[in-house]
Amino acid sequence: MVFKFNAEHHIKESIAEKMCVEIDNVTFSADLAGDLNVNALDLAELTYAFKKDFNIRIPNEMTSKVAIVQDLIGFIKELKM
After folding, report:
1. Neighbours of 10 (CB within 10 A)
2. Containing H/E element for 49?
3. Most exposed among 10, 11, 29, 71, judged by the fewest C-beta atoms under 10 Å?
4. SS3 for 1-12, per residue?
5. Domains within the chain, CATH numbers bracketed
6. What confidence score (pLDDT) does residue 1 get?
7. What does pTM read for this prediction?
8. What are the pLDDT digits (tens) for 23-72?
9. How far apart, in whole angstroms, are the C-alpha atoms of residue 13 and residue 24?
10. Cβ distance 8 to 78 under 8 Å?
11. N- to C-terminal Cα distance for the chain?
C-alpha cells in the first residue's frame, strides 16, 4: 500500500513541477492537455522521467492513450507490477 501512495504522489508531484501548477490541480480526473496544458513534448519528457524513476519500459503507443492523470498512473502501475 505504501508503494501505491508514493508512486501516485510522485507522479502527481512530477506533473505539477513540470507544468508549474499547484499539486492540488493535478487530480486523478484532470485532463493532461486541457486542464494542465501538457503537450506532446511535455508528455514525452514526463514518461522518460517515469521510465527512469520506476525502472519500467513505457511503449510509445501507450502514451497516445493517455488523456487524464489517472490514465498515466494506471499505465505506470500496470507496468510496474
Report:
1. 16
2. helix 40-54
3. 29
4. CHHHHHHHHHHH
5. 2-80 (1.10.1200.10)
6. 41
7. 0.87
8. 999 999 999 999 999 999 999 999 999 999 999 998 888 888 899 999 99
9. 9
10. no
11. 13
